[in-house]
Amino acid sequence: MTEQLARPTRDLNVSDRFDEMMARIDALDPLLRAEAEANEAGRRLTPRVEDALHSVGVYSISMPLELGGLEFAPRQVVEAIEALARADASTGWAAMALQMAIGTTAAYLGEEPFAEIVAEGGERTLAAGQGTRPGTASRVESGYLLSGSWQFASGLLHATHVHTAALVVETGEVRVFTLPKEKVTIVDNWDVMGLRATGSVDYHCHEVFVPAEHTYLATTTEPRLGGAVFRLGLANFAGIQHAGWALGVGRRLLDEMQKIAASKTGTPAGAGVDRSEFHSAYAHAEALLRSARAWNMDVWADIEATLDGGGTASTEQETLARLALGHVTSAAHEVGQIVYRWAGTAALRNGDLNRVFRDLHGGTQHVTSGPGVLQGCGRRLAGLAPGASWVFLSLVDPA
Fewer CB atoms < 10 Å away: N or C end of the chain? Predict the structure, then answer.
């Protein structure tokens, strides 16, 4: 159960297949929009959507190059998730969770352990799970006995494996465990207001054996496969995904408002969209979303340069990445409020805008942009935590 020695990673990969993948996602857009209602009704992605995501290679976005993946750079990931979320918020959410989980599982476990997982799961091997509320694990010969109860496993209904965090009783370290989905009990309780199609169910298990080779330290920034992007670690990797999602949903809300404005302008019922107050409000919403996007891209460009130079993200860079994510999530939320106000009764009726609005409010509840993260950012930027560093989503002072 000895840790594998870390090996030097490659420079940052900026995929030369990015335009190809974006064209594929663009071609997929009509299907994702058409299936969105059926996704929600079934509380999971439809078979047509599931097949399409696999066929265009969405789940290779964060897969290491050594395994035939695309291994996108951070800003490329942001744009890809943005496009998926713009087509359908729930599809974008499930896809971002699944592609991140399987890519990081491969990178941090290494080639041989990951090959064993693929042998278990087949050609459509995917992982999903949760780690912000760890379970427990006890060391035994050649592995661990895993127990716990977890919530919000987005995409788990489409996965073959669970990846989940647990506190090792003997050492106090938090590790991520990957095991076949059949070894946990799924609780089909995802009955919610928004993001209904993500199937973010609960799951639990008791003393399930997991080989040591199928686990890794949750705080690791030393991949066994892949390039510099995997030196970000799980928390920063998740931030990239959520930034893209917020941008895509914010843009879709403005798309829907444009449709409503076009249908009402010049009519007695459309007096609202012909008022200067609406014009100002729409301009404000555009400025909010565009500025949040530009800042996120600027923050990640700086981090990419550090990674490409052989470094790891500094505490200052991690702080700005978390703050930029919080800002774009807040911006998308405000865009939603503006659109809801000016859409009038169209926002109340079943349909695309109603669904996107509810999905927005599901996504903005996520812990990655919660109050605790914002407080940590403020404390660091105010100069009140000079020696602190980020451990997942908490700014921790030196011992």
Answer: C
Q: Which residues make Cβ contacts (< 8 Å) with residue 364, sequence separation at least 6?
A: 246, 329, 330, 332, 333
Other beta carbons within 10 angstroms of residue 282's beta carbon come to 19
Which parts of the chain have pLDDT scores under 50? 1-4
Q: Where are the domains of the chain?
A: 18-121, 127-217, 228-392
Domain 127-217 falls in which CATH fold? Answer: Butyryl-CoA Dehydrogenase, subunit A; domain 2 (2.40.110)
The per-residue pLDDT for 270 is 66
Q: Which CATH number fits domain 228-392: 1.20.140.10, 3.40.50.2300, 3.40.120.10, 3.40.50.1820?
A: 1.20.140.10
The predicted pLDDT at position 2 comes to 41
Using alpha carbons, select from 21, 90, 30 the residue that is nearest to residue 60.
21
What is the average pLDDT score of the chain? 95
Tokens 């006890």 locate to 138
Among 201, 210, 200, 221, which residue's Cα sits nearest to residue 136? 210
Q: Where are the alpha helices (DSSP H) in 309-351?
A: 315-343
Confidence (pTM): 0.96
Longest dimension (CA), the chain: 76
Which 3 state secondary structure label does DSSP give 167?
A: strand
